[in-house]
Specification:
Blueprint: H1 3-8, H2 14-33, H3 37-47, H4 52-73, H5 75-83, H6 88-92, H7 107-112, E1 128-131, E2 141-144, H8 146-161, E3 172-175, E4 191-194, E5 199-202, H9 212-222, E6 226-230, H10 231-243, E7 254-258, H11 264-274, E8 278-282, E9 291-293, E10 299-301, E11 306-311, E12 324-330, E13 341-349, E14 363-370, E15 375-376, E16 382-383, E17 396-405, E18 408-415, H12 421-435, E19 439-444, E20 459-461, H13 473-477
Parallel strand pairs: 3-5, 3-6, 6-7, 7-8, 17-20, 18-19
Antiparallel strand pairs: 1-2, 4-5, 8-9, 9-10, 10-14, 11-12, 12-13, 13-14, 15-16, 17-18
Length: about 475
C-alpha cells in the first residue's frame, strides 16, 4: 500500500479502508495490467502449445541475451564472473544444458546487497521494490520495473489462472500477507474490498473457529470466481468450515493457491468446503521461477518464465525422481537478473510425462520443501516434508514440528478435542519410524503463530544450519 495511505489506514473505519484499498488497487491494476500486458499475454499463449524444439530454441536465445546483458550491465555478475575467468564470448555461445559451467548465486548474496544485482542502464526512478518476510527474519528485496511486472502477471494469467479456467480479470478473493485488518482488531469484518479489481481480501491472521462464519458470509455475499493466496490458510479455513458443517452457497471456478505445498488431503478438504478444485502454483517474490498445475493435475515448470535446475551439491543435474536443490535463472527480469539463483527449495523431476501434451514444459514430481525446513535425525538422515505427522488423525487441525536437538522434538498441535494417549503414541511411532529412536513431546496450543506476512511454518529447527544442510554428509559428520 502506498506510504501515504498506510500512515492513516489503521485509524479510519472499515468503509474508508475499503476506499483506500480501492484507490491503491486502481494504481496497482494500471501498473500490472497496463502497458504491454496484452502483448505479453498473447506471447505466453502462443508458447503454451509449442513443441520442445521451439521452446529449446527460444530458451537458448533468451538465455544468451540475459547472460550477455548481465555481463555488460550488472555489477554482481561482472565481479563474480571475472573472478571465475568467464568471458562474454563463452556466455554468448552457451547452451542451456551447459549452465552448470556458471557458478550459482547464493540467496545470502541477494539478501546482503540487492542493488548490486540491478542493471546499470535502468533509470532509478523506474525501479519498484518488493519484499519477502524471509524465514531468517531478513527480507529478500526484489526489484523490477512496471514492464517487468506486466510480464510476470501475464505468465500467471495464462498459466496459473488460465490452466485453471479463469483469469486475473475475474472477481477474486485473496488470503495473503497484507494486514488489511489492523493489528489489535478482533471484531468483524475480517476482510476488505478492492472495488478497482473486484477483489475480496481476507485477513490471514483471524482464521479461527469463532470467526469462520464471517469468512463464509463474505464469500457468499461477494461470490468471487477464483480463490487465491496461501494454500495452508485456505486449508485451515476449509477444515474449520467442515467442522462447523459450513460450505459455500455457490461454486467458484477454481482456487489457485501458493506459498505452501498443496497436498492431496488439502485439496480434498478444500473441494468439500469451498466447492471448487484447488490448483497448485509455485513461485517466489524474486520472480525467477514459476510452476503451475495443469488440468491433468501435474506441476509444470514454466521454462519461458525461468529456467529451473535441480542439482546436487556440486551444481550438477539430478536425474528424475531424485531430490535436489532448486536453482533458478529468471528470463523475464533484466532489471535485476538472477542467474542460477539458489532459491532455497528442494524438488525432484517426474519420471512420467503428462497427458495434457505440454511436452516443452517439464513435469516436477514435487516441491519437497524448503532448505530451512530440514530436520536431521541422530544418524544423519534428513526429512523435509511432514504431512504424515497428522495424517488420518481428524481431531488434529494443525501441527508444527520444532527440533530442539538431534534426538528431541516438540510437536505443537491444534486440536478440536483433548489429546488422548493413543494419538500421542501414534505420532511418537511415526517419528521413530522415520528418524530412529527420538524423543517427541506433544504440546497442545490454541493456535500456531504466523510470520509477519501471515505464512505458516510447519517446521522450526534449532539446529545450526551447517548441521542440517541437505545432501552434505561430510558437513553433517562434524556436528554429530
Amino acid at each position: 500500500m502506498a506510504h501515504f495511505l498506510e500512515r492513516f489506514y489503521p485509524f479510519v473505519p472499515a468503509p474508508l479502508q475499503n476506499l483506500g484499498i480501492s484507490l491503491y488497487g486502481f494504481a496497482w491494476k494500471r501498473e500490472r495490467l497496463g502497458g504491454q500486458f496484452p502483448r505479453y499475454v498473447s506471447e505466453f499463449r502462443e508458447r503454451d502449445r509449442w513443441s520442445p524444439e521451439q521452446m529449446g530454441a527460444h530458451l537458448k536465445t533468451e538465455l544468451r541475451r540475459l547472460l550477455c546483458h548481465a555481463f555488460d550491465r550488472v555489477p554482481y555478475y561482472q565481479r563474480l564472473w571475472q573472478k571465475h575467468g568467464i568471458t562474454r564470448k563463452e556466455l554468448a555461445q552457451i547452451e542451456v544444458d551447459q549452465l552448470s559451467r556458471i557458478p550459482h548465486t547464493p540467496k545470502e548474496d541477494l539478501r546482503a546487497n540487492a542493488d548490486s544485482f540491478v542493471a546499470q542502464n535502468v533509470p532509478r526512478e523506474k525501479l519498484n521494490r518488493y519484499f519477502s518476510s524471509g524465514s531468517t527474519g531478513t527480507p529478500i528485496t526484489s526489484i523490477c520495473t512496471a514492464d517487468d511486472h506486466q510480464k510476470f502477471i501475464a505468465a500467471r494469467d495464462v498459466r496459473s489462472l488460465g490452466w485453471a479456467g479463469t483469469s486475473i480479470r475475474s472477481p477474486r478473493s485473496m488470503i495473503g500477507g497484507r494486514s488489511v485488518v489492523p493489528q489489535g482488531v478482533s471484531r468483524p469484518p475480517f476482510h476488505r474490498y478492492n472495488w478497482a479489481e473486484e477483489q475480496l481480501y481476507f485477513s490471514a491472521y483471524h482464521i479461527a473457529p469463532a470467526n469462520i462464519a464471517h469468512y463464509v458470509a463474505a464469500l457468499n455475499h461477494h461470490q468471487p470466481g477464483v480463490l487465491t493466496g496461501y494454500a495452508h490458510s485456505h486449508f485451515l479455513l476449509a477444515q474449520m468450515m467442515c467442522a462447523q458443517n459450513l460450505s459455500l452457497d455457490y461454486e467458484p471456478m477454481a482456487a489457485v493457491l501458493s506459498s505452501e505445498k498443496l497436498t492431496r488431503q488439502m485439496k480434498a478438504t478444500i473441494k468439500r468446503a469451498l466447492r471448487t478444485r484447488a490448483f497448485e502454483e509455485y513461485g517466489a517474490v524474486e520472480n525467477c521461477v514459476l510452476a503451475t498445475e495443469c488440468e491433468c493435475g501435474h506441476l509444470h515448470a514454466n521454462l519461458d518464465f525461468g529456467i529451473l535446475e535441480i542439482v546436487d551439491d556440486d551444481g550438477q543435474p539430478m536425474p528424475p525422481g531424485v531430490d535436489g536443490r532448486v536453482l533458478c535463472t529468471g528470463l523475464l527480469n533484466h532489471t535485476q537478473p538472477l542467474i542460477r539463483y539458489e532459491i532455497g527449495d528442494v524438488a525432484s523431476w517426474s519420471l512420467e510425462s503428462c497427458a495434457c501434451g505440454r511436452e516443452h514444459l517439464p513435469v516436477i514430481k514435487e516441491i519437497v520443501g524448503r532448505l530451512e525446513d530440514v530436520i536431521v535425525g541422530p544418524d544423519g538422515r534428513q526429512l523435509v516434508r511432514f504431512h504424515w505427522v497428522a495424517l488420518d488423525l481428524p481431531d488434529i487441525m494443525e501441527t508444527q514440528v520444532v527440533q530442539e536437538a538431534l534426538d528431541q522434538f516438540t510437536v505443537k498441535v491444534v486440536t478440536r478435542n483433548q489429546l488422548d494417549r493413543e494419538i500421542e503414541q501414534i505420532i511418537q511411532r511415526r517419528f521413530c519410524d522415520r528418524l530412529g529412536p527420538v524423543s517427541v513431546r506433544l504440546e497442545r496450543v490454541s493456535s500456531i503463530p504466523r510470520s509477519e506476512r501471515g505464512k505458516f511454518r510447519s517446521v522450526i529447527s534449532k539446529i545450526s544450519l551447517p548441521a542440517r544442510t541437505p545432501f552434505g554428509c561430510a558437513q553433517l559428520a562434524g556436528s554429530l
